[in-house]
Amino acid sequence: MIPLVTRTAEEMILLVPHELREAALALGVPRWRTTISVVVRTAISGIATGVILAVARVAGETAPLLFTAFGNRFWSTSLFQPISSLTVRFTLTRSRRLPTGSGQAWAGALVLTAIVLAMELGVRWVTRGSARVAR
Fold it and tell me: Tell me, what's the pLDDT at 107?
């Protein structure tokens, strides 16, 4: 995910017109302040979109999660032991056919939906003022 985000951020920063940078520098703004207040502000919507796409790509790749989790059903705090993933949790709780299993699977789906909604609202909050067209 990190290479995808850094490449997206680099491309978005390169897409910022040089005229904006030159205008800020011509007004006497220091280079570091120009980078923060002009370049990053202009590129933030593209960077946020790249982050969301990277997270969605990672979340959508369930095969690596299944192979790294080894089908473990238990929670582990160690970085060197397998840990359960949501995909494994959904499959195991639905396949048991227990009365609580169905409720747990629906609760997991609700949590996953809430995470996606929170990320979407976060991106809208970050990019709330950058969609305006300059006239």
Answer: 81
